[in-house]
Amino acid sequence: MLHRNIYRQVLMLLCAILFTISLVQAQGKLPNVMVLATGGTIAGTGATSTTTVGYTAATVAVDRLITAVPELKKVANVKGEQVFQIASENINNDSWLKLAKRVNTLLAQKDVDGIVVTHGTDTIEETAYFLNLVVKSRKPVVIVGAMRPSTALSADGPINLYNAVLLAGSREARGKGVLVALNDQINAAREVTKTNTSTLDTFKTPELGLLGYMQDNRPIFYRQSTRKHTADSEFDVMQLDVLPQVDIVYGYANVNRIAVDAFMAAGAKGIIYAGTGDGSLADPVKSALVEARKQGVIIVRSSRVGQGIVARNGEANDDELDFVVSDTLNPQKARILLMLALTKTINTKDIQRIFYAY
């Protein structure tokens, strides 16, 4: 009996030791983060170390971006892949589909814990929102860029990349949708926008506010977006090879119908009207949009203002005109949501539901 009790005690002690070892190993295990590079200023070079305008974007390959930040090895197992190498003003629908499919494929792998996408800042908010709508995972996806090329004094790319990898490998970022991380700040893909042509603090969420900060090598969140995204989204692009044509018409004093007619002639399936104020419709453009709707084109009223809700039946009788309103989405993001909505339905009531949900 004594030997049996000793045996049990030794066995329990061994089990406790093995559990402790496995726990320590699990806690010390670094996350696996994939860096997908697409070009942009973060991969740009200038003629001199003081060149911060007039530089050449998208010249540095992903391996060089990663090796330039050796501290990454301490916070994650990082691998890189060059998806494409362009300045972000050249991003198009085909680019988005290619990137989204690759992101979804990688996130389905057990050995990938998070993804960082390096991107030019000109269209970073659009790519982030597109991915926010079509990524089918709760694993973190972080979009990052830079306002200064890699060759500049005090280049912001290295610290932005470091923070993005930390964020993508963190538990705190799981389930919060696609995130945009620059300048030590974390913003939601749906709401962030570029607000300045050149300063480092250009990315902001003016009314609703940022989600949190990167500080002391960890993310600190204060809020999260309440709109549907990623794993809860109804959109699936894995079988899509093309997106419907949706264009933006800008409102201004003395606006005419030329742009609407041109987009109609070019085969637009949807038009976002970036109206003045609360999406107001000047008479010349209103008549053109009414005609376009009668021909089956989906019309969404947005605003050039950049903040606030576009009220349904506010500056136009949307029920009577069979128009849709963009809620708080700016025109460039409304375009993205309408493209994806048109892959599901052409019913304006369903499309309006989508705009209120996402």
What does this entry look like structurally?
- The chain has ten helices and 14 strands.
- With 358 residues, it is α/β, with parallel strands linked by helices.
- The protein folds into two domains: 30-232, L-asparaginase, N-terminal domain (Rossmann fold), CATH 3.40.50.1170; 246-357, 3-Layer(aba) Sandwich (Rossmann fold), CATH 3.40.50.40.
- An eight-stranded mixed sheet has the order 2-1-3-4-5-6-9-10, with helices on both faces. It has a four-stranded parallel sheet with strand order 11-12-13-14, with helices on both faces.
- A hairpin with a 2-residue loop joins β5 (179-182) and β6.
Give keywords.
single chain; 358 residues; alpha/beta; Rossmann fold; eight-stranded mixed sheet; four-stranded parallel sheet; 10 helices; 14 strands; globular
Low-confidence stretches: 13-27
User: What is the molecular shape?
Assistant: globular
Helix content: 25-40%
Give a short account of the largest sheet.
8 strands, mixed
Strand order of the largest sheet: 2-1-3-4-5-6-9-10
CATH C-level label of the largest domain: Alpha Beta
CATH architecture of the largest domain: 3-Layer(aba) Sandwich
- Report how far the terminal alpha carbons are from each other: 67 Å
How do you describe this structure in short?
The protein is α/β, with parallel strands linked by helices.
